[in-house]
Amino acid sequence: MISLSAVIPAYNEEDNVGEMIEALAATLEPITADYEIVVVDDGSRDRTALVMSEYASRYPRVRLVRHDINQGYGAAVLTGLTTSVKDWIFFTDADRQFDLNEVHRLLSLAHGTDLIVGYRAPRRDPFTRRLNGWGWSTLVNTLFGYTARDIDCAFKLIRREVVANIQHRIVSRGRLSAPSFSCSPGEPVIVSPKCRWPVIGPELQASRRARGSASFCAHFAS
What count of other Cβ atoms lies within 10 Å of the Cβ of residue 60? Predict the structure, then answer.
């Protein structure tokens, strides 16, 4: 039986986080009885924390982690990864862009692999976000060699051993951690082929955000 932590960073996601918890629980229950859902509230200014608490009272496998102030996407992801306790960590965003059933495809690739990074085909974000993503991917792959086809894709499966082995090397909790730990901007996970951890990834269907607008990026711009 696989041991699985599902990590969701959330900032001002009151419209999405409840349904996301429900969907994740429904997806993971048939897969394994040994799972947890770790939701990191990055100092949200809306009702995200209240909604999370309400759902946690109904779903005993949900564990809430809160930042008192908004620290940014990288910090929220890092907190989620490093506080997870299961053998594998499934990471995705709270905006419900992905079909969670595709986690089966990631799990099917886990044998002999330590990091599975999905890629969106096609990516359905607004043009400016796609342009920024292309520029970021080009920069990272130019500086560090090919890392992953879609380093911004928030649909990943990571062996917890990888996180445990590198977390002491992380000196930044924000965007600057990305080039050396590059899955996507601010995500503290090494995916360079120069490292010893095998990396593969399947094609995923992605839609636009279910509700609301992206807000972590506003923090990076400040």
Answer: 8
pTM: 0.75
Identify the CA nearest to 117 among candidates 86, 145, 149. 149
Task: Give percent of the chain with pLDDT exceeding 90.
Answer: 42
For the chain, domains (ranges, CATH) are 4-210 (3.90.550.10)
**Peptide bond preceding 202: is omega within 30 degrees of 0, i.e. cis?**
no
Tell me the C-alpha distance between 189 and 192, whole Å: 9
State the Cα–Cα distance between residues 160 and 24, nearest whole angstrom: 19
Distance (Å, rounded) from C-alpha 7 to C-alpha 9? 7
